[in-house]
Amino acid sequence: MVGEAPAGVDLDSFFGPIRVEWDQEAAMTPLGQLPFFIDFLKTSGLFDAFVADCPLRYASPNAPKKRDVLGTAMLAMLAGHKRYAHIAAPRCDAVLPELLGMKKVVSEDAVRRAFKAIDESEGAAWLRGHLLSNPYPPLT
Residue 112: which domain range? Predict the structure, then answer.
């Protein structure tokens, strides 16, 4: 029926199953479609593999988790942020980090230090391996 809101969609996330419903009266957000992307990342196993293979190694037990560092950077990029100074913007989001299985959003300094700590050749091999093993070919 025209004008009726869709009933909703069940998705899977790293937090667990969620239900996405539409409210035609609510304000819009450019990040409203990210739960669908997170469902894709969980179902495909791509984000888990990306985190597991990351050559980031910490010696301190107080260091942030790799998933939190990579998730913070990914959410910031998906939100359109291009500078380290804006990386912490997902801190204001109470939903998406949890859906991605993150414990917290880390600071821009933590992300900068983490990427700086990765050996350049190891980091390039890590990223190249994931780009080349992507089972989803680019759209042409």
Answer: 32-132
